[in-house]
Amino acid sequence: MAISSQSFSTLKSQHPIASRSRRRRSMRPGERVALWVSRIVIWCVIVMVLLPMWFVVIASFNPSNSYISFSLFPSNASLANYKALFQGGQFWTWVRNSLVVGVVVAVAQSFITAMSAFAFSKLRFYGRKYGLMTLLLLQMFPNILAIAAFYTALAKLNMIDMLGSYILVMLGTSAFNIWLLKGYMDSIPRELDEAAVIDGATTWQRFMHVTLPLSTPMMVVIFFLTLVGIFSEYMFAGTILQSPWNYTLGVGMYNLISGQFAKNWGEFAAAALLSAVPLAIVFAVAQRYLTKGLVAGSVKG
Amino acid sequence: MATVMEMRRSHGRERAKRRVDWIAYGYLSPALVTICVLSILPIFYTIYISFTDFNQMHFLSYQFVGLKNYEELLNPHDPLSNLFLPTFIWTLVYALCTTALAYLVGLFLAVLLNNKHMRERTLYRMLLIVPWAVPNLISMLAWQGLLNDQYGQINALLHGVFGLPRIPWLTSALWARIAVIMVNVWAGFPYMMTVCLGALQSIPTDQYEAAEIDGANWWQVFRYVTMPSVWRISLPLLIPSFSYNFNNFNASYLLTGGGPPNSNNPFLGQTDILATAAYKMTLTFNRYDLGATISVLLFILVALISWVQMRYTGAFKEVDA
Description:
The complex is a heterodimer. Chain A is mainly alpha-helical. Chain A has helices at 2-14, 20-25, 29-61, 80-88, 90-122, 128-138, 147-156, 163-170, 175-186, 190-198, 203-214, 216-231, 235-240, 249-257, 261-300. Chain A is built from 15 helices and no strands. Helix content of chain B is 70%, strand content 2%. The longest helix of chain B has 33 residues, at 81-113. Chain B is globular.
């Protein structure tokens, strides 16, 4: 199947006149069967993949969540769950906390990442060759595994249950982001940077006025990935933040559902929908650039 | 590297040395400081704790106990070895199954979608990517509700439509393990699919033409043209995803909480992986010493995996350039 479609496309490029109708006619019977079989398989997979998410959507509109029976559409849809969520008042506090932490961390990390990526991409220094590799290896060990160290250190410093300490812990730079951005900066034509050097630009000017503006797309991706990352971080937030008014969205939602499923399922579903949709859209936009970078990176290697 | 060597030859050593931009360390310093304080320091502190008896009983006056924690966890005759070895085996099984299944599903769908005659494939692709786009935390918690054996919609569906008995998804050891793997394949296949599609589309068409001229059948083309290229491109991304799953907290902690409980192990449940074991030992049982020791052992394992991966795949190779 793959072969026929691929060779077909070259055939088409050899005969640019070939119209859409001709392209259809030239499908052999075997290909037509293969096409419909793959369509049906894909439809089945899509239903299996999306049905669970649809259940969450239904649950968010279902006012009575004491007993849940199977249905494809909410029987007596209402916004009761959303109302309850907003009246509780906590939801917006959690969103605000997540936004505060997310924006502070994402701004700081984007800038730190940009500076190091610039150094790795455009400057010469001792340790350039193995530096990034070492950092990448080091971060195969996620911070959260040092939880005993983080927790006891924060407890001794009396810094538990503070939004500030959570921000501090999350500030750790991701070597992977540096690697990603460095790859992007490498693709900026060298001539631009050299022209700036000849014009007598300082390193800072080369960074701020040449490299950084040209790296904007990847910077945006890194910013949003960090922001979304904060929204889906639970382990540190759940450890450090202990009062309900300090909860981030993740911790709040965890407490909504765990152990009190029957009571809060509808409210949880409403909160999940409200937060997942904007984040999913951001992600969908960001991942397009990200996968391009990922695949380009490994093709190069 | 080559240009530097040439330059050395033509301009001499001093010239090459003068090209070092010392200011680079200034640009690197913010990253180095945060990495030192938030990655390296905690790792060293963790290693240090793993050699002490630091726990709730000895919060202020802990002592150095040497390798005692490691002996307890690794010696099969010690009761505490229940903490490590079964959890380690389950972690391996879980990470291998999740990565392999997600890859197979992703590759399968990518091959189906890579069909020029299927003109609506962009739509399919967008729909299939949804599990990846929903933040992992939210989808794992949602699955916890969906798989509830009393009220969950999955059992309602299986019971109402297919007439199957209620499956104890999160309360029986076997089903909980199946559920954890299943849900993580659900969450992980879109990434693999995207990577495989990218790889499929990067295969030059002349390779297919050559295969067709040689009279290769569908399977031979797939086996000798498609797979080698896809494999070469996806392997560097496949193995990091294995080490990611190896430490994937959300997978078991948010879905099952590590449960159901284990009869011969008071601390850990049936679906706890090593990472959640370290977390629980620290925060639930205040055994910082054992939590740190599990973390160090995990660190050694992850380092080994990473080393093997870098060695055999050449991932991140262009970092040397």
